[in-house]
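Task 17 of the worksheet. Students: predict the tertiary structure of the chain below and write it out as structure tokens. Keep your answer in the requested format; marks are given for formatting as well as content.
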Amino acid sequence: MAYSSGFSPHPRISYANAAPTGAASEAEFLEIGLSVACDPERVRSDVDAALPAGLDIVAAEVSPGDTLADRLTGSRWQIDVVGVEPAIAERAVATFLARETVEVSRMTKSGLRTFDARGAVRDLRPEPGRLIATIAHQVPLVRPDDLLAALAEVEPAWRPTHPPLLTRLVQGALEEVTGDIVAPL
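Model answer:
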């Protein structure tokens, strides 16, 4: 692994568009700077062997040279919600999707920030006990908890009884026409 220069060198590793704290994920990416060229499969195998059980490196590829984060343009999320009646979930989703904008606020390092959550949501469908959402990566990044806040904004009866379970199912290049998310490399 390559290290930064200076008085306190750090490993050259970057987590591209990491999932929010507390969210599960089946699709995370990281970039590792290497000091010498290595076989990607050997890097994958060595890193995978060093990780705890259940945290698996499924593939490694040589970077094409640009930043991986620029290639990650969309994510699909499964959002498990408890205590929301199916009719309320359907009404909230329909109302949300019918709007051009739905503003939400989130506390950031620089204070409270208000932004549109609707524009980033490319697809949203209710299923029993959950939502499946396809979200385009934009600035600011709309997270699943922002989407839940937006649903509460448009539907007063939206009141889950437990904290949601957020799981990123896939992440990659969002194809605008089809809404598919494909491998970024």
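Marker's comment: DSSP finds four helices and ten strands in the chain. The chain has two domains: 13-69, 71-182.
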